[in-house]
Amino acid sequence: MRPLSRLKVPVLFLLFIEFQIVNSFVAVAQERSDLRVAFWNFENFFDPFVDSTRVYNEFTENGGQHWTKSRFYKKRNNLYRAILAISENEPLAVLGIAEIENAYVLNSLFNQTPLKTHNYRIVHYEGDDKRGIDVAMVYCIDKLQLIYTEAVKVKNPKDKNYKTRDILYAKFYDRRGDTIHCFVNHWPSRYGGERETIKLRALAANTLRHKVDSLVLIHQTIPKIIIMGDFNDTPEDPSIINLTRGEVLVNLFTDGKKLGFEGTLKHQYNWQIFDQIIVSKSLIGNNKGLLYKTNSATIFHDDFLFEKDESFGGVKLFRTYVGPKYFGGYSDHLPVYIDLIFN
Question: Distance between CA 319 and CA 298 in Å, rounded?
Answer without folding.
Answer: 20
